Amino acid sequence: MGRLKERFQAFVNNRWLVFVAAMWIQSCAGVGYIFGSISPVIKSSLNYNQRQLSKLGVAKDLGDSVGFLAGSLSDRLPLWGALLVGAFQNLIGYGWVWLIVTGRAPVLPLWAMCILIFVGNNGETYFNTAALVSCVQNFPKSRGPVVGILKGFAGLSGAILTQIYTMINFPDQASLIFMIAVGPAMVVIALMFIIRPVGGHRQVRPSDGLSFTFIYSVCLLLAAYLMGVMLLEDLVSVSHTLVTIFTVILFFLLITPIIVPIALSFSEEPRDPVEEVLLPKSEQQEAGKAEQSDQEHEVIFSEVEDEKPVEVDLLPASERQKRIAQLQAELFQAAAKGAVRVKRKRGPHRGEDFTLMQALIKADFWLIFFSLLLGSGSGLTVIDNLGQMSQSLGYDNTHIFVSMISIWNFLGRVGGGYFSEIIVRY
Q1: At what angle do helices 399-425 and 143-168 cross, to 10 degrees?
Q2: What are the backbone angles phi and psi of residue 363, rounded to the nearest 5°?
Q3: Which of 8, 17, 95, 6 is nearest to 260 (CA)?
Q4: Where are the domains of the chain?
Q5: How far apart are CA 214 and CA 208, in angstroms?
Q6: Residues 6+ apart with CB under 8 A from 197
Q7: For the purposes of burial, counting CB atoms within 10 Å of the CB of 335, is it exposed (0-12), middle (13-18) or buried (19 or more)?
Q8: Distance from C-alpha of 203 to C-alpha of 63, rounded to nearest angstrom
Q9: Residue 25 in contact with residue 123, Cβ under 8 Å?
Q10: pLDDT digits (tens, 9 = 90+) for 247-281
Q11: In whole angstroms, what is the distance from residue 45 CA to residue 48 CA?
């Protein structure tokens, strides 16, 4: 019984469980990508012209882009608190829009509608921040795949929500607004206490390669399945029973990644004695000692980057990892005995945590800022106006186009995370 309890505790504190829960949150968090499906009903029910609807689209994009408050609160609140704020904003913003569209609340001026759309979509920034911050801290050596997969699921959320909407078979199009107001909030509240940094290994574990391969396989299978289902439902008249079966299979594919933390928590994994030195102390230890241990480890890791021989980078990946692990262990033991004095770094290295002021003086920050500022507008323009574009071409069902662009958005982001990590390493 005690061993089972220990295994269950290992499962709850497993960083892969946090990653899978973050994937689930992201799979319903990209509500902004479904704007092309809800814009036609907003336009018709409120008698908006295209210019007024474009202003709502701009407000939606601003809500998705202004994440400074979410980032600031994530430093001052526990991550579950930031997720709760995001869920509340999503529910209030889109919930109020649904009440107006269905005639249950008085119609507000356009500027007030823009504020509601902004508030509702700004909740997405809290979901993204909490998921990415926790998982990047849990997987510091696999940031590319982690960020690519999580952002990919945010892009795929449009197709997932559309399929769920098709299964529920609401009587009117406005019910899609209700679903994106209530659905993400329910999922986030259910999972918000799982999303957090947990104790774990700072290096790449032997099981990480196989685990990421399994996750990538599920991602590709999920994208191919959704593409096939969407095309079948559009080209052939499908019964509601068959749509329900398709959606149940979709849920099964979304739940499948939970196999990874279960397998890792309930199976033994041998550890190298050198790696044991690098493991941070468990959460059961005193908070002060654990924090001091983490700081010592961070200094040791930074010292390794400064002191490691140049020829280490020329070794094969497995040998390089083993040599760096040995060097870290030697430095840690020497520093503990007082044989060497580990120098304090003046600032964080690339890939480590930065404060806002530290980031503002870095060229990398401004390069990323202007790249996003100048490069993301074209895709958002297509997403915002996809409903009107498809209607102008004679298509009544805009959901199929929203789903397809979500699926390819998903594949592009997952592929970008995968190949960026390969480029960085080699």
Answers
A1: 170
A2: -65, -30
A3: 17
A4: 1-268+365-425
A5: 10
A6: 18, 133, 134, 137, 138
A7: middle
A8: 36
A9: no
A10: 999 999 999 999 999 988 887 554 443 343 344 44
A11: 8
Give 261-266 contacts, CB < 8 A, sequence gap 24+.
261/11, 261/14, 261/16, 261/17, 261/20, 262/11, 264/14, 264/16, 264/207, 264/211, 265/7, 265/8, 265/10, 265/11, 265/14, 265/17, 266/7, 266/11
Tokens of 370: 């202007």
Residue 159 CA to residue 250 CA, distance in Å, equals 11
Q: What is the pTM of this model?
A: 0.75
Rounded CA separation 396/44 (Å):
13
364-391 pLDDT, tens digit each: 888 887 877 777 666 667 766 666 677 6
Instruction: Report how far apart, in Å, the C-alpha atoms of 261 and of each of 198, 217, 238, 253, 414 are.
Output: 13, 16, 36, 16, 20
Determine how many CB atoms are found less than 10 A away from the CB of residue 380. 18
Please, are residues 127 and 26 in contact by the beta-carbon 8 Å criterion? yes
What are the residues whose beta carbons fall under 8 Å from the beta carbon of 371, sequence distance 6 or more? Answer: none
Q: How many C-beta atoms lie closer than 10 Å to residue 75's C-beta?
A: 12
Residue 415: what residue type? G
| 158 residue type, one letter | G
Secondary structure, 3-state, 208-246? HHHHHHHHHHHHHHHHHHHHHHHHHHHHCCCCHHHHHHH
Contact by Cβ (8 Å): 420, 142: no
The identity of residue 327, as a single letter, is L
